[in-house]
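Sequence only, no structure available. Ideas?
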Amino acid sequence: MPSLAYQTYRAANAGLGVLERFVKTSDNLPSPVFIIGAPRSGSTLIYQAVVAEFGFSYLSNRHCTWFGAPWLIEQYTDALSNYRNSLSFDSKFGGTKGWYSPSECGNYWYRFFQKHPQFVSKKSFSEKAAKALQQSVSVLSKSANKPILFKNLMNVLRLEPLLDVFPNALFIVIERSPIDIAHSILEARFKLYQDYNEWFSVEVPNIQALKNEPPEVQVVEQIRSIYQLIQRQASTHPSQFMTLNYEQFCATPNKVIEKLQEFFEKHDLNTDQISLLPDSFSLRREVRIEKSLYQSLQNYLAEYPISL
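Reply:
I predicted one. Tokens follow.
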């Protein structure tokens, strides 16, 4: 049973969430921007870089402490300046350290979306939840007085309702070599659970069937399902989706940033850009899982490749 302190903390956030409903918002607020992709695709690094480089508002670890009303933190805290002044690109399995570091802030999103099953269709998303989400983001945007960048990889399972609530939202799709994503997911499984068969992160719609497969098949098909979900929405909203390759970003981050700037300008998104990124980021190349499992992964991808 949760402690009394934790129950009080949750109740306080729930109360702040109610208060949020009555805050006045403005018209013509900028549409939110979402970073999406597979787990272990490099999305956290790119989230950190885009926040720092373009000066977006975002959910920091401090915002997430008071997930019932992140607009209050935004109104009274300059998270961006604090993050830029102590800039770090460190993370561990999507988590970051430091009050002002960008956060996925799962608790914020679970205010509006169910935990299980994680996939949410437009039809299954209630009108009440849609209105609450729209109000919350609008209040946060008004407090920030600048565009907001979100990164929570579960949102790849919520694209239908997100586009319904925010029809002009922009999406940055992170792609990476499929074998490197799969390799990193398997590494995460073992480091976190000491078991390559234990599911990690995004629970795709076909998860139950995949759980009967060997781990190399599970992770490859998890990745395939994620990018199929993205492609389904990108095909009907092509101008709102931009693909960013992780390997290219690590090799020449500033060139990729230039392309992002063009994307934002095309959509009349005003940003506060400054140059803070290094010339490159390193990539890990060594095999970090059992050699036999890595060979099975290579064999499966050779037979059933993923085209990104």
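The mean pLDDT is 95.
Hope that gets you unstuck.
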